[in-house]
Amino acid sequence: MSRSVGDSDRDGIVVLISGRGSNALAIIEAASRDWFPARVQAVVADRSAPGIELAAARGVKTACVPRATYPDREAFEGALAEVIDGYRPDLVVLAGFMRVLSTGFVERYLGSMVNIHPSLLPRHRGLNTHARVLAAGDALHGASVHWVTPELDAGPVIAQAQVPVEADDTEDRLARRVLEQEHRLYPAALALLRSDPVTYTHDKPLDHPLVLDRDLDERGRIGHSR
User: Fold this and answer.
1) In order of start, what are the domains of the chain with their CATH numbers?
2) CA neighbours within 13 Å on the CB side: how many for 212?
3) From 117, 130, 141, 146, the catalytic residue
4) By the 8 A CB rule, do 47 and 64 touch?
5) Angle at the Cα of 101 (from 149 to 69), degrees rounded to 5?
6) N or C: which terminus of the chain carries fewer CB neighbours within 10 A?
7) What is the reported pTM?
8) Which H/E stretch holds residue 16?
9) Which comes out higher in pLDDT, residue 10 or 31?
């Protein structure tokens, strides 16, 4: 299956969150700049979340689809899809959305749904990545933007940001530095997808994952991996 992002009549992004929404806010901030080629149509949460209020304060439409009010995942995902589809987005962006989505839901948006994960995938899929990086003695940590596929954190990687692991790092210190890079990486990766049509294929959307340059400029450029 293939699909090209950035060459349709849809030009917007819907962001899904579950908490404070710091990555969503970084995307909203980027969308206010000339170099970012899309608009944030809405921020949608699966529960009452601080990020909803922060997004609304910045003039972005918001919606809440509380998981707790639905009898099962199927009903919840049906309601969530209805909200998303109402905006006709080109990209569905998971930004701290803490729900494992069903295969059916993922396949509905296959090739148009992306996620950010706090590790250099394929290493350290799942939770507690910072602790696992320290336990493994990794020299590098970071974040990855990837296509969402039915297998958790296993979709093809689009772009990454690297963070050196320091000898005296704790989980909290490492997590803070990774999050700083996430706030730079996610808008830049989305700009890449929207500026130059990128064809999704299940196995390999790009020849190589792209690496966020340390000297990322105001145009949000990402450099090829070295």
Assistant:
1) 2-224 (3.40.50.170)
2) 29
3) 117
4) yes
5) 165
6) C
7) 0.89
8) strand 12-17
9) 31
